[in-house]
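During the no-cost extension, the postdoctoral fellow (Dr. R.K.) reprocessed legacy sequence entries with the updated structure-token encoder. One reprocessed record is reproduced below for audit purposes.
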Amino acid sequence: MKAGARTLETGQGSRNRFRTRQGLWPVIFCFLILVSVTSGFPPGSRGAAGLPAKKDRVAQRKDPQPQIIGTPRRHVVKDGETLLDIARLYDLGFNEIQGLYPGLDPWIPPAGTELTIPSLWVIPGERRKGIVVNVAELRLYFFPGKKKAVRTFPVGIGRRDWPSPLGTFMVGEKRANPRWYIPRSLQEKYGLKTMPPGPDNPLGNYWIGLANTSYGIHGTDIPWSVGRLVTHGCIRLYPEDIEPLFAMVQPGTPVAIIYEPVKIGLKSGRVYAEVHRDIYDRIEDFVEYGRQRLRAAGLINRVDLAKFGRVLARQSGMVVDVTRPDPPEPVYSGKRPLAGN
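Re-encoded structure tokens follow.
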């Protein structure tokens, strides 16, 4: 009896396992249908679960190092405002507003006019340390390090006949309320050999000297000169900008002064260009120079060259998306192609 009971229990267990396997078949069948359907989606489409396709997920990843900074803004001109007032309000140089709106009277822009504020910038150069001054765009970038955000300020630079020097330097001495030791070539003009601190001192309230040179980064007694080619080679900032920069930099901070009127940057998988005028007339073929910048970045095959050419011609200083459109994706009808020749 005990043996028969064991035999009966074993048979019942086999039937239960068989029923369990039978119950799994509908689940397995539905899973196979789901796999076959989702694998048939054309490239670049969204899957059945609503997730982006792989290439979209890659494009949505954060860039390892920001190449474009700032936030686009708009401004409605108020009665009595000048373009210089608006530029300073948004910490821009006069060149940045004038370049975008060359047809507007800088002293009497029509009240109620809505302006796009060019407050988006491609970070120039390959260096990401210390101070970088791109004289071609009249703008300074400061990289504090330790994963802190880059700071940027508009600047005034050397005149065409007295250009700002290019190259690599280092911060030397720093002086608050500096005395200006007037270059010999200018002493006759000012009737002085030195000028004490004060409201008429063109160095403003702070001086950051470039070691082993007579040049420096400093404030100004004429704020409206920021964004212009007005100095004898030095770099000048708004009074409200030189003060925090003076506090942040220390002797020994590296300084790179570069000339880069065409800047190329990536953001979220898109290619952007920012183009400025060749203010020192250093470039013979501007179009070829722009294409060289694309080749150097390894991005020329990802750019709409016709659009890029228009951006090169406009030279507005605005950051513009020049990414080449993707080719149209094939349409899948689900039918087998007909045999043909």
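The radius of gyration is 32 Å. Residues 63-122 form a domain with the Membrane-bound Lytic Murein Transglycosylase D; Chain A fold (CATH 3.10.350.10). The remaining legacy entries will be reprocessed before the final report is submitted.
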